[in-house]
Amino acid sequence: MIELEITLETESPLVLRAGRASAQFTPTLTYIPGAALRGALALNRLGERSTPDDELRQVFLSGAVSFGPLFPSQNGVAGRPLPLSAVACKRYGAKHLRSAGDSLFRLELADVLGSLKPLDEWEDCPDCLDQEPNYPNKRDRLSGYYLEEDEFATVKPVTRMLTGVGMSRTTGTAAQGILFSMEAIEEGQIFRGRVRIEGDEAETLAECVKELAPEGKILRLGAARSRGQGRVRVVGWQPVNLQGPSLGERWDVLNAVVRGLWAEYDAEPEGEYFTLTLESPLILRDACLRPLRADDLKAETFGLPAGVERRRFILNEVILQGWNTAWRLPKRDTPAFGMGSVFLFRIPHGQRDAMLACLAEIEQAGLGERRHEGFGRVRVCDPFHYRFEEVST
Ligand SMILES: [Zn+2]
Q1: DSSP string, 267-329
Q2: How far is the CA of 137 from the centre of ligand 1 (A)?
Q3: I need a labelling partner for 298 at 20 to 30 A (CA). Which of 184, 222, 257, 317 fits?
Q4: What distance lies between CA 331 and its chain's CA centroid?
């Protein structure tokens, strides 16, 4: 598999609606879905040639190329979506650096112990506690994106409101009483995302993909394009930097952290833990193509072998809506599990190596449906879940 990183910069306000516009105020997504980039590239190419050629089929229809979501980035580093288990000071957020943390293993420990002690002792922001010992602020859910660097930092695209007036279909002029506002991502914001290319012809396909979006090319993304919004420039391509701990190392540190945390409460973990964390929405259906809901999820749903125990899921359910520009029709609404959802599993001791082989496959191939649009990207044993805890030796 070849993985490439593409960098885009917004040149005019970018409106990426989470749903179809039916309200007076429409918020924008703060990341660029892979499907939006994929659609823009396909339409561009179709505009140049009237009929789809082999190359186009290979890139867009064979399933060999997957366009992942593009996240806001800073200092040349792509942001990552914060897991739903991320927390920080309720009042000052991640500015109170010591309050940043992850609640997943403390929730699990509270469950194992049958006591809320591991959460109660941790819920106050330590920075606020130093300043105002009598009135500390609690830790609360932290959402958005973060930079995976030594020092924890969040990253957020700048947005602003655009105001518009509805047009009358009969007269073609401004309609009375129809004023609406759209949230848009500002100009000059940088986004980075990964394109994965699989198969024997990956190298040739990688060249094709790069040719579709050469450096300096202007793409049109999102809504309100006829009003000049959504101009995005391709800054360039680069190979993905695959530094960082290997899956095996992540597994070991995660479990060392678990043992350390459990030991603080005189407990010992009954097996080894691992996590699956969603880096893009995940679409799962059963054999009859019905969407799976949270209660239906078992270890087998994720392609995990028997003996894996489902422990704790922190997830949100979203409805994916979209617009097919070529057809000028809405895409079908699809229920999915949102980005940042976290799934915690446990296995008995001594099965680490067999499990790692299975997990490496999941991490590389992804899960669920519509993976070529970037859905179902998963990170196994995401360091975020343990980076704020001390490692016991
Ligand atoms: Zn605080």
Answers
A1: ---SSEEEEEEESS-B--B-TTSPBP-GGG--GGGGTPPTTPEEEEEE--EEEE--EETTTTE
A2: 6
A3: 257
A4: 21
* Cα–Cα distance, 294 to 338 (Å, whole number): 11
Tens of pLDDT, residues 145-188: 999 888 889 999 999 998 888 888 788 888 888 888 889 999 99
CATH of domain 247-385: 2.60.40.4350
Name the residue ranges covered by the structural domains of the chain: 2-80+155-239, 85-142, 247-385
Q: Which two tokens stand for residue 82?
A: 């914060």
CATH class of 2-80+155-239: alpha beta
Q: How far is the CA of 145 from the centre of ligand 1 (A)?
A: 19
CA–centroid distance, 89 to ligand 1, in Å, is: 4
Start-to-end CA span in the chain (Å): 36
The Cα angle at residue 111 between residues 245 and 107, in degrees rounded to 5:
45
Give tens-digit pLDDT for 247-256: 999 999 999 9
Helix runs in 224-369, H state only: 247-264, 352-365
Q: Do 234 and 188 meet the contact criterion of CB atoms below 8 Å apart?
A: no
Which residues, by Cβ under 5 Å, contact ligand 1, an ion?
89, 92, 96, 125, 127-128, 137
Helix (H, G, I), strand (E, B) or coil at 265: coil
For ligand 1, the distance from its centroid to the CA atom of residue 200, given in whole angstroms, is: 52
